[in-house]
Specification:
Elements (H helix, E strand, L loop, with lengths): L1 E5 L5 E4 L3 E5 L17 E9 L4 E7 L3 E8 L2 E5 L2 E7 L3 E6 L4 E7 L6 E8 L9 E6 L10 E6 L8 E3 L4 E7 L4 E5 L5 E9 L1 E4 L2 E4 L3 E5 L3 E6 L3 E9 L5
Parallel strand pairs: 13-14
Antiparallel strand pairs: 1-20, 2-3, 3-4, 4-11, 5-10, 6-9, 6-11, 7-8, 7-10, 9-12, 13-15, 15-22, 16-21, 17-20, 17-22, 18-19, 18-21
């Protein structure tokens, strides 16, 4: 088993006043040659957006974009839909940019900050027709068990959202002292594990809130929650970027 640990403090950070953005991988003005990607993961941003503020209309193409609100109200609008759509904590949004799409994202609250993760995954098929998906996932369904949020469009998993990549995005909330064995799809996959909150051990490596660990060249690994912990798993093929 091979691992790479990204401590929370090692991430890129930019304070734009209305936006506090933390980057796990090279993005915008943050560049680290050791943090360009993890397999098919290109971006994992941890954003805090001020009330009524957000990102104006901007384009994307040939990227699978996944947004996970943690706190607050996200309002989304894109060139596939004319009206603003709310995405709330507990919900997940996916957008396959494909041949090209424009979208806007704003904090839908006049009072509270919006906290979210946004994830970009490199697709295994380019120039597809753009598509949008959104789904609510209940907290009880990830209590000490794995909850799949996103899987490949080629897989028959009706409970999850779909993207154009052989990937699995999932969450689990572990009680203190609980153990969990994560099993990878294949030896050609790796898992980027973000600790949303808590403290846990992966084999003999300890990770805290907003620390992340990439794990690859293994069939499985064991997690022990040293305290109550929320975890995001992003499993992807370990492709090489040119």
């Amino acid at each position: 088993m091979k691992t790479i640990v990204h401590k929370a403090s090692s991430r890129g950070y930019a304070n734009h006043g209305w936006l506090q953005a933390t980057h796990s991988f090279s993005f915008a003005n943050f560049y680290d040659p050791e943090k360009v990607n993890f397999g098919a993961i290109r971006v994992l941003n941890d954003d805090l957006i001020a009330p009524k503020m957000g990102f104006g209309t901007h384009p994307h193409n040939n990227m699978e974009i996944i947004t996970i609100p943690l706190r607050g109200v996200l309002k989304h609008r894109d060139s596939m839909h004319n009206e603003w759509q709310s995405v709330l904590p507990g919900e997940v949004q996916v957008m396959s940019a494909g041949t090209g799409v424009e979208h806007s994202e704003i904090n839908g609250s006049n009072e509270d900050h919006l906290s979210l993760f946004q994830l970009w995954i490199i697709p295994n098929k380019e120039n597809v027709e753009p598509r949008y998906g959104q789904k609510k996932f209940t907290e009880s369904d990830r209590k000490n068990k794995l909850q799949k949020l996103v899987t490949s469009i080629d897989e028959n998993d009706e409970g999850s959202l779909k993207i154009h990549q052989d990937a699995v995005v999932s969450r689990i909330d572990l009680d203190k002292g609980k153990e969990f064995d994560y099993k990878l799809k294949t030896m050609n996959h790796g898992v980027y594990m973000m600790v949303i909150s808590g403290n846990l051990s992966v084999e003999d490596i300890k990770v805290d809130t907003r620390d992340a660990i990439g794990i690859y060249e293994t069939n499985d690994f064991k997690i022990v929650a040293n305290e109550a912990s929320e975890i995001l798993f992003i499993e992807v093929p370990m492709i090489q970027l040119n």
